[in-house]
Amino acid sequence: xxxxxxxxxxxxxxxxxxxxxxxxxxxxxxxxxxxxxxxxxxxxxxxxxxxxxxxxxxxxxxxxxxxxxxxxxxxxxxxxxxxxxxxxxxxxxxxxxxxxxxxxxxxxxxxxxxxxxxxxxxxxxxxxxxxxxxxxxxxxxxxxxxxxxxxxxxxxxxxxxxxxxxxxxxxxxxxxxxxxxxxxxxxxxxxxxxxxxxxxxxxxxxxxxxxxxxxxxxxxxxxxxxxxxxxxxxxxxxxxxxxxxxxxxxxxxxxxxxxxxxxxxxxxxxxxxxxxxxxxxxxxxxxxxxxxxxxxxxxxxxxxxxxxxxxxxxxxxxxxxxxxxxxxxxxxxxxxxxxxxxxxxxxxxxxxxxxxxxxxxxxxxxxxxxxxxxxxxxxxxxxxxxxxxxxxxxxxxxxxxxxxxxxxxxxxxxxxxxxxxxxxxxxxxxxxxxxxxxxxxxxxxxxxxxxxxxxxxxxxxxxxxxxxxxxxxxxxxxxxxxxxxxxxxxxxxxxxxxxxxxxxxxxxxxxxxxxxxxxxxxxxxxxxxxxxxxxxxxxxxxxxxxxxxxxxxxxxxxxxxxxxxxxxxxxxxxxxxxxxxxxxxxxxxxxxxxxxxxxxxxxxxxxxxxxxxxxxxxxxxxxxxxxxxxxxxxxxxxxxxxxxxxxxxxxxxxxxxxxxxxxxxxxxxxxxxxxxxxxxxxxxxxxxxxxxxxxxxxxxxxxxxxxxxxxxxxxxxxxxxxxxxxxxxxxxxxxxxxxxxxxxxxxxxxxxxxxxxxxxxxxxxxxxxxxxxxxxxxxxxxxxxxxxxxxxxxxxxxxxxxxxxxxxxxxxxxxxxxxxxxxxxxxxxxxxxxxxxxxxx
Amino acid sequence: xxxxxxxxxxxxxxxxxxxxxxxxxxxxxxxxxxxxxxxxxxxxxxxxxxxxxxxxxxxxxxxxxxxxxxxxxxxxxxxxxxxxxxxxxxxxxxxxxxxxxxxxxxxxxxxxxxxxxxxxxxxxxxxxxxxxxxxxxxxxxxxxxxxxxxxxxxxxxxxxxxxxxxxxxxxxxxxxxxxxxxxxxxxxxxxxxxxxxxxxxxxxxxxxxxxxxxxxxxxxxxxxxxxxxxxxxx
Lengths: 841, 234
Ligand SMILES: Nc1ncnc2c1ncn2[C@@H]1O[C@H](COP(=O)(O)OP(=O)(O)OP(=O)(O)O)[C@@H](O)[C@H]1O
Ligand SMILES: [Mg+2]
Prior knowledge:
Chain A is an alpha+beta fold. Chain A is built from 24 helices and 22 strands. In chain A, helix 3 (about 85-90) crosses helix 7 (about 245-265), helix 11 runs antiparallel to helix 12 (about 400-425) and helix 14 runs antiparallel to helix 20. The radius of gyration of chain A is 34 Å and the shape is elongated. The two termini of chain B are about 35 Å apart. Helices cover about 35% and strands about 25% of the residues of chain B. The interface of A and B includes residues 835 and 841 of A.
């Protein structure tokens, strides 16, 4: 009984004896499998991976939305909670094995080792409840983690560091443990370093690597004290439920307690009278958090699914190519197989032999694909998240990725190996032995042509998809944002992290105003809470005098310095902009965008942001609808208040909110001449003003703008790359089939030439045949393109799903590639020597 | 009609140069019926390929119908061959995917003739060779003799002045061979110049002149042995 080992040995020998074939096949597979495996690596890391904690499958997040960073008012479907609400839920929910809280956003702190002259470095920190680490079951790498008793007012300030942060920012200094770190001037003792694999519960780039007890928030952020405000929701809640059956009950219990708490604290909510109906509407649900709180999933899930599909199509095309190669080989080996069959080899045995060879080939391809996938994933991550230092996505092939590649290789081998094996093992041995190979018809030829047609159809679909996405991206990038990014620089700073309190801000503004406008080459200068298209957008309710508080509107807002609109290039439409005359003591004014109070004459109107404060601002001007939100969203109603003016409130939370908008996070410069010269002089001047304020980013505004499209660009690049890969593979396929047909038709061509066919005619005959297959593929690909466009329609920006130009361009590209692929064998056909051809007959 | 002067043909085999035609000098008049004989490997097919203008790599002088072939470009030679020459092969070389009628039409399809004219010529030829009933059959559905009949019909459809045949009866049994030879004789009597290669003395008797090749040399040039045609005639 011949064994599998024998089959394997024989297959290996077969592959060794035809290195050209083997190399082509393995390369094709490496590309197809590599593309798919690379995307799978990302899918795994972003969508499937579990948190490196004890029993991650038992973790649930309260609220299915992933949001940042804080909000007040009714959420209806709750996902963010205040500290007081957290404590209430934690202490009143029966049946859960614990509930922990973690800040949804991050705070920037400037960290310095006490007693050292080392420069302060800006770091991200996150406040967590004392039971955060025990609940997750994270173990320390060194020292200890936070305990519930660290999370009390008056407890000594302590912090825990992530292993990665300790390695990258503190040079793995062993003395750091137990030492004191100054965070924005406040001393904290480093009590521990978390396990190396644990980077926090959030799957996000550059995760915060400092963990502080919730109770320390009040001390570290005296201007915020968000921890003390029962109406400020800023925490994600995680619960552990060891028994899956208990989930619905726990969810109901938590939602019930939520309503109880709201009902008992109605005064915290806006509006004069919170009704029972309002309370009854509030709810929340439990969502699995086995993979942590997944920012990346939220952001990339759609793109990854699309790319996975596209990569799958590329693999399918690669499979078609291989099936073709094997068919050709099968035909060439028909004689050998016939002899074997005549000598008594059963058909099943021949079939198995061919299959083993295909599988071996697939596994070789799979091994090469892992290298391609590793390089590909690295490249994709670098493109997707430029400038990210600590990435949770690890491109190295992990066990699941290796398993995936292995399984996919086997599947691929079966897919491309079965049909050719069947065809060649079922050749009629009598005919093969008689050498009846004069017939120009054979079963394989039809299969080969069908595969080429399929490849052309799939390639066209991929190319047109890439074209559609590209068109959409063009429209997205070249839309009118209604401001002028050219010739502007934007500086992101965090004066809060440098220890500035609200009281010291006026002095900072003054130094800005005294310094920056006078720098050489600076035409205009302004600062604001944030600028257009920076990813920030603060929203608030709007209340108008005499208008029912229940019909409140919503608007974005930012505080700006004088000359702000000139500096960013937003057009003034009516009235005036924010100017030097708007001081601390002058009447409180605001400028609004056109969308604000749509349809009404706004100048002279009053409005406010709290129900009983509807006269806080008087509108003095109207500006164009510059975009501040997402690039695909329509412009939002918006108002601009002078950064020099502060509305006086009485409630602590209202005061804190008002003060928070006064920290200038964005400094915008309109410069003349050389960008790098301007940047250098700005940096130098900034050092003069305060060397301790960390510059988080400094970039040209066009760069800042284009950061809004990083993901779209990546998807377009990858889809285009995959489309071209498909085109290449399809061309190789067409080349192979045509070359094989020419070889098989040598004598026919010789006869035709002997009967008077000119060489040009022979060339045309071969090219025509190849193009006919391509055209058929185009015809079949067209509905596929339309279908793909339909599925994509909702992701396209101002791009209809029917783009004839894209289709025509894709078709032309495919035809050109087909022409080139066909010309090579066609030229060989045209140079056939008829004497030779007829002799070998 | 044909004049060959010092025709030489050689192949590079490794380092050596193997001559397969040596210093061939030959004239063939219009209306002649020439048989080329000689042992296997003597160069008969090679000579025929030169005459057919299929081969380009010989040296010497060749004039066909007053055209100096050696001075013509490849294209010019192909053009000349298309007009003046018909070819018949030992293994017929019919295209398996085409019907009898389509096979016969093949040489016409390479000339720029109107469709109607081509159809008329094909119909005429089918008629002349009495294969009208077989016009829609494929070569695999014909006997060897019938296939060769189609091969000859295809070779003469465009009324070539010169018909070249390389062992046209090599795959046929004697009765079929006699029929083909009779057809050649008729074509020759109607004015077609014929050069055939054969191993059969009997076939040679249908011709008017025998050439013998040995190792690439033209070693004999005579009329066929008397009486052979008599054998046939009886
Ligand atoms: N392509 C080639 N390369 C090398 N030698 C060749 C080639 N074609 C023909 N020959 C040689 O040329 C010589 C003459 O061949 P040719 O086919 O003309 O012989 P022939 O007289 O027709 O023989 P036969 O009666 O067997 O058909 C032979 O020795 C052959 O080996
Ligand atoms: Mg010969």
